[in-house]
Amino acid sequence: MTCQNTFNDRPREACGVFGIHNHPEAARLTYFGLYALQHRGQESAGIAVVRDRRIAFHKGMGLVADVFSDDRLELLKGECSAIGHVRYSTTGDSVVANAQPFVIHYSGKSYGVAHNGNLVNAHILKKELEESGSIFQTTTDSEIFLHLFVKNLKNGLESALVNAVTRIEGAYSFVLLTSRGEVVGIKDPHGFRPLCLGRCLANDRYVLASESCALDLVQAEFIRELEPGEIVIISDDGVKSIFPQKSVCPSACIFELIYFARPDSRIFGKNVYLTRKAHGRQLAKEAPVDADLVMPFPDSGNYAAIGYAAESGIPFDLGMIRNHYVGRTFIQPTQSMRDFSVRMKLNPVKELLKGKDIIIIEDSIIRGTTAKTRVKALRELGVKKVHMRISCPPHRFPCHYGIDFSTKGELIAATKSVDALRDHLGLDSLYYLSLEGMLAATGVAQPENNFCKACFDGCYPVGFDDIVSKTCLE
Ligand code: SF4
Fold it and tell me: Which residues are within 8 A (CB) of 344 and not within 5 positions of it... i.e. 6 or more apart?
């Protein structure tokens, strides 16, 4: 019997998007781009291409490699434009109908869209659209964008885009494909989610991707990130940029730098690896403690742990070994095999850790169940002292902009003080990086004016329902 992998005591990202204009290997490069973005969503994957002024697509549930075979890609091949998407659902069900890109046919033309983020006024817009006769095929907020978009198409592509983006609110990075072969990139005026523009080194064709690691894989040079509120239209005439909305209080998701984005990516002007290392250094300055070694819970804590060790002078070691071959499903263990899924993924190196005082570096504690099990396992094998340092402040508030902790009840730090959490996890000491320290270590000028940090301080840059609007909850 198999069961779903239950290693999900970790926050999950909404999605990753990719687009390429007029390339002889458009579908194949989109496949590789999605492969590089797989960490942003593992529930479904899809690619849409333009063929004979119609959009053909394939999408399905699972990883990119599961959804696309060589034969599938052959069916999508040709010199054309393409967009792609990997999804983890934060709105709508995890079913193939909600997989993206969404493709629609309207007035003899086709359009496809792929979305990363969350629209906070989706329920209001959907009600309004349904009352005026719109019929929805999916339960996601992303489809709302297309309904708004087509309403103004009679006035041209640009006008339709402007009409749609001025109605939606929240976090969105879209790529859009038209049956004329245009590829469009759109970033919300707060710039919550990353989206960058690149150019293929071999033939100068333009590429859009959630993260620069996807550009590297398809051998495209990084040109720049889209600005908050920018729309980039890529056509045979080149790249056109418009700013239909005034930029309002930039609010890049700082948790992308701490946890979500790949460490080899450059987002929000910073290399992710180096930023995580700087957070680890800052943590060592704020919360020094004597110990024999510093170790991460791999892989997410690796980079901050390297920074902590470098700053503190305490040796870095890999005291937990990750099984890289754990799949999405596995044979269900017997009742007696407690904590099976946690142990299956990470196993401690007993001979290294026994009798030692250790510092564990983690990038976050969301529900706390996995951390508790791992600390218990370390105690059982004879570790003397277990200190934990977290490379961001406590998550006390839900995220409404595309990350999957959307209620306070899912966040253990919302209900327990740091001391209570230390005892709950069975630690000798626990320290979270300060908000000021986290912001300063990014190296971004005036970081308090450039990042969203609402899950830490409750100050939401965009209101998320009819009652709460741009406010602090504390
Ligand atoms: S609330 Fe937290 S996770 Fe959500 S966008 Fe803001 S910083 Fe990112």
Answer: 7, 323, 326, 330
The binding-site residues of ligand 1, defined as CB within 6 angstroms of any ligand atom, are 192, 253-255, 399, 401, 403, 452-455
Q: Is residue 176 part of a domain?
A: yes
In a domain? residue 184: yes
- Reading the chain (474 residues) residue by residue, the pLDDT tens digits are 333 333 345 656 569 999 999 999 999 999 999 999 999 999 999 999 998 899 999 999 999 999 999 999 999 998 899 999 999 865 556 678 789 999 999 999 999 999 999 999 999 999 999 999 989 888 888 889 999 999 999 999 999 999 999 999 999 999 999 999 999 999 999 999 999 999 999 999 999 999 999 999 999 999 999 999 999 999 999 999 999 987 788 999 999 999 999 999 999 999 999 999 999 999 999 999 999 999 999 888 999 999 999 999 999 999 999 888 876 555 656 666 666 777 778 899 999 999 999 999 999 999 898 899 999 999 999 999 999 999 999 999 999 998 877 677 789 999 999 999 999 999 999 999 999 999 999 999 999 999 999 999 999 999 876 544 445 444
In a domain, 120, yes or no: yes
- Whole-model pTM? 0.92
Give whole-number Cα distances, 176 to 188, 404, 447, in Å: 14, 24, 31
Residues 138 and 284 in one domain: no
CB within 8 A of 446, min separation 6: which ones? none
Q: Distance between CA atoms of 442 and 268, rounded to whole angstroms?
A: 10
Q: Which domain holds residue 344?
A: 273-457
Residues 165 and 299 in one domain: no
Total of domains in the chain? 2
Distance 309 CA to ligand 1 centre (A): 27
Max Cα distance, the chain (Å): 73
Distance, CA 184 to ligand 1 centroid (Å)? 25
Whether 137 contacts 143, CB under 8 Å: yes
249 has catalytic annotation? no
Q: Does any domain span residue 257?
A: no
Q: Of residues 15, 80, 213, 452, which has the active-site annotation?
A: 15
Q: What is the CATH number of the domain that holds 299?
A: 3.40.50.2020
Q: Are residues 240 and 294 in the same domain?
A: no
Residues 78 and 196 in one domain: yes
